[in-house]
Amino acid sequence: MEAASLKILFFDVGGILLTNGWGHESRQEAAKKFGLDYKEVSELHTFIFNVYEAGSVDLDEYLDTVIFNHPRDFTREDFKEFMFAQSKELPDMLAWLKEWKKDCGFRIISINNEGKELNDYRVKKFKLHDCFDAFISSCEVGIRKPDPKIFKLAMGIAQALPQQCVYFDDRKMFALAAQKQGIRSFQHTDFESTKKILEELKKENSN
């Protein structure tokens, strides 16, 4: 029955394919490197980061609030360079998925929370176009996970029913949020187990 056949794989990016773009470990590193008060940075980050990820402020406005709210002995460009350098490819998954995608028979679309400048950098730097057919990024759509609307929007863009979709996220809360929309969801814990699930889905789909 065509209506029930699996069409779309949705993937988170940070924590599965790449490190998180600007997670708390990176902010701790930044505090050490640039001599910042981590507690202060953390409080201000919490206050504004969701707004940045939803695309309402840009990276400079985020930095104005969190870092450059008083004079610093380092430049904005140095700090941005450090931020971008925090994005690294995780072992195995991305290279394997790019290859697997060539004949898997599925469309693969990302659903991720990311600020625009970081998102654009990551897509370009790690050639994510080789992996994804489309990007549902919070900064572009103005909605962040776990808001149900981002999953509904993703299905609308893909023109797919919930039962035609599968979602992978390293955060259980986000996997559960997708599940509540009727999407079969898996929490990614490591390369081997996700690879096994994907191979099984491919087999199911070709039967």
Structure notes:
By secondary structure, this protein is of the alpha/beta class. It has two domains: 2-19 and 89-206, Rossmann fold (3-Layer(aba) Sandwich); 24-85, DNA polymerase, domain 1. It has helices at 24-34, 38-53, 59-66, 76-85, 93-101, 116-125, 138-141, 148-158, 172-179, 191-206; strands spanning 8-11, 107-112, 134-137, 165-169, 184-187. Strand 4 (165-169), helix 9 (172-179) and strand 5 form a beta-alpha-beta unit. Helix 2 (38-53) packs antiparallel against helix 3. The longest helix has 16 residues, at 38-53. The radius of gyration is 18 Å and the shape is elongated. The model has no long low-confidence stretch (mean pLDDT 96).
